[in-house]
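pasting for the record
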Amino acid sequence: MDLKLKNKVVLVTGSTKGIGFAIAELFAREGATVWINGRSHESVNEAIGSFRKLGLTTVQGVVGDVGSELGVKTILATLPQVDILINNAGMFKPEEFAEISRASWLRMFEVNVLSGAQLTQHYLPLMIKKNWGRVIFISSESAINIPVEMVHYGMTKTAQLAVARGAAETCRGTNVTVNSVLPGPTLSDGVETFLGQLGMTEEKFFKEARPSSINQRFAKTSEVANLVVFVAGEGAAMINGSALRVDGGTAKTVF
C-alpha cells in the first residue's frame, strides 16, 4: 500500500529510541523527511548514526527537551512548519500513589501533556491553513486502564486523549486530522528497568499486573509504529478525533 507520505515533513518527538525511533524509521522507509528529537546532542547524533547504518538518509535531528518551554521554542525555531506531528515524547515512573510528590506530578504533566499540547497549538493552525496535516498523540492503554503503580502517568495519558479530541474539533471541514494511538505494554528501552522496579518477570507482569491482556506479551515497537504511520497516510483521512488501541486487548472494553 502506498501511504503517499513521500517528501512529507515529519517531526517525531522523543524519538532517539523505543517507539519513537521505530515510528521515525518507518516514516523514513515511506520516503518522508523525518526529524527526530531528543534532549541531548549525544543521543540525537547516536540515533542518526543508527539510521544511517540502516541506509536511511532522510532523517535529521533537533535537540530540545519538549517538557520545557525553552525546549519547545528551540524546536519551533529550527522547524517552524511540518506536515505531520507525532507527539511521542513521554516518561513513566512507578510510584506509590500516596508518595507521589508535587514535583513528580508536575514533571509528568509537563513532559507527557504540555509538550504535545504546545507543539500542536503551533503546528495545527498552519496545517489547517494549508488544508492538509496530521497530528498523532502517542497515549497509552493506561489512559483508560489507570495503573495503580503509576496513577500520575495514567492521568497524563487520559489528558492526552482530551487534548487530541479537542484539537480535532478545530479541524472541522478540512483535510487535517488529529488522533491518539494507545499502545499497550511495549518492549522498548526501559522495560527491563521497569519490571525490576516492580520486582516482576514478563510472565508475572502479565499474570498479575495486566491479566486482561489477550496477547499476554509485550508489543514490539514496530507493531505500534505500523498503526501510527498508517493513520498518518492519505488512506486514513476518515479517521479523525479517534483513540485507536494497539494494546493486545489489554483494555477490557468493546470500543
